[in-house]
Amino acid sequence: MSEKAQIILDGKTYEFPVYEGSEGEKAIDISKLRDQSGYVTLDFGYKNTGATTSAITFLDGEQGILHYRGYPIEQLAEKASFLEVSYLLLYGELPKAKELNDFENQIRYHSLVHEDMKHFFEFFPSNAHPMGILSAMVNSLSTFYPKSQDPHRSANDRMRTAVRLIAKFPTLAAISYKNGLGHPYMYPDNKLGYVENFLYMMYGLPTEPYKVDPVVADALNKLLILHADHEQNCSASTVRMVGSSQANLYSAVSAGIAALWGPLHGGANQEVIEMLETIRNDGGDIQKWVNKAKDKEDPFRLFGFGHRVYKNFDPRARIIKKSCDDVLKKMGVNDPVLDIAKQLEEIALKDDYFIERKLYPNVDFYSGIIYRAIGIPTRMFTVMFALGRLPGWIAQWKEMVENKEPIGRPRQIYTGATKRDYVALKDRG
Ligand code: SDX
To answer: C-alpha angle with apex 282: 276 to 284, nearest 5 degrees?
Structure first.
């Protein structure tokens, strides 16, 4: 760090080092600001604030660039498997053949969940949202593996916990789906690949053989890769924040699932499909809904549009939009909401309101259409986002733990009542 930043406060000049990352991003290191000046910074939603340094994911919102450990998302989505990308995010390098084979075998070995966990599912209401179930079940994994409760126990323990979570997550997700249908749970079939096994547990029935459609498996593999990490998004920052208190990985990821569920974050993929269906059922007057989205008096937002970082285009949305046509054609599916989505995108991208605010389709805009085409029910869309994001959350947690980062504890500016004395109840009138 050679450059300096100067801040002049109350007539005094303070100097702070400038930090430059490997891709040329720059930050003012204000870690000594309060000690030197008594001031803190204020930045609602951390729109201009870096919480950490990270070597996992690089994204450039202006250029629409997204790299996992330096590899462009376009290449990984086209050529890699989801477990290969999971290994890359966790270890920092693409696995050699033996490393990938060992990793896949470990995942297969841990794919079962403790039989006692099945009783937990029976007590959820049949209409329970699978994200609520999943957050609870992932947290409860920590009670079955007490050694996981000390993240600093050893690197081996940390990786075993990570592998257990990646292995059991699809099993838990599929059970939460079956639970809602009242269908019998399917045990993992470890002869199948990771994605194929999930589809088997989701759609298989003990009464008849289930054959995974390679088109569906390929589409899902691509979608999971595209969701695998996205630097310091809301849910990843939640995982880091919870993990920074030295809470265990299962609890930190359970909190990440809860954060992802929000409609402004991962919950948007379910909202998009429900929005497109509302527009279709309302007669398909797209301009009417675009106008509603622009009307400050109207709470309606165009779900799947806009992004905190991408102010040009979300590269994931481009890839998903392209594979939308491809998957629907291969599946022989004609989904009217896809046409509405394309018309909506076309109208919005020509509208000054969206152009001025640099609002483009994000990862959630088209993903739901593919999920729907491959048979994933709408209420499972955000679960699919969580399944994809899991290795990214774990990689972020692992990096934070291994870098021995301090517990997260932001400051504030108090705006409430100044000091006043207690008034006895009888004197309050
Ligand atoms: C994800 O961070 C990540 O990386 C997230 C994610 C990941 O991989 O982890 O990429 C995944 O969460 C994608 C985003 C999914 N959410 C949605 O699609 C919900 C709809 N989008 C918005 O709510 C919004 O765009 C956010 C939440 C995504 C971003 O919000 P910001 O950065 O806080 O921006 P903002 O709300 O301050 O909006 C700026 C302006 C405002 O108008 P003005 O006050 O300037 O007049 O743009 C408007 C907003 O009202 N605006 C929208 C809009 N999004 C922003 N207006 C209508 N429809 C929208 N979708």
So the answer is: 65
- Distance, in Å, from the CA atom of 203 to the CA atom of 197, rounded to the nearest integer, reads 10
Atom of ligand 1 nearest to the CA of 231: 4
How far is the centre of ligand 1, averaged over its atoms, from the C-alpha of 306 (Å)?
A: 4
pTM, to two decimals: 0.96
CATH 1.10.580.10 boundaries in the chain? 71-410
Contact between 180 and 126 (Cβ < 8 Å):
yes
Give 135-186 pLDDT, tens digit per residue.
999 999 999 999 888 888 899 999 999 999 999 999 999 999 998 899 999 9
Q: Which two tokens stand for residue 34?
A: 């309060």
Looking at the chain, the domain(s) classified CATH 2.20.28 span 4-65
Minimal CA–CA distance to 196: which of 178, 179, 215? Answer: 215
CATH class, domain 71-410, is mainly alpha
Classified by CATH at the fold level, domain 4-65 comes out as Rubrerythrin, domain 2 (2.20.28)
Residues β-bridged to residue 72: 67
